[in-house]
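debug: dumping io for the single-chain case to check the tokenizer round-trip. Nothing else runs in this session.
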Amino acid sequence: VKLVESGGGLVQPGGSVRLSCSASGFAFNIYVMTWARQAPGKGLEWVSSIGSDGGNIYYQDSVKGRFTISSDNAKSTVYLQMNSLESEDTALYYCVQGSRVTGTRGPGTQVTVSS
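debug: decoded output
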């Protein structure tokens, strides 16, 4: 299993960023995929999950209406569109195989929201 996140960076408050996670080494189209994040000094936190068919989408309350998860089975890639970013969204974002944050994850991509 290999998961590689990309797309992070420094973003101003209110800005947007789109994260991507390229997956390989497993049957991507039969797995739930999850985005999780870890803010400085805090534990790993579940953000959003998407079902294997692109349905059954769930979000943490704090990101509802601002973040959108999607996936492309043909490309074995899952995305996280993040809008209206806040300083509290600053974290290392991970792509995780499965519905739990304890699943196999990639090295992460840093998102820093700051002016």
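debug: round-trip ok. The CA atoms of residues 20 and 79 lie 5 Å apart.
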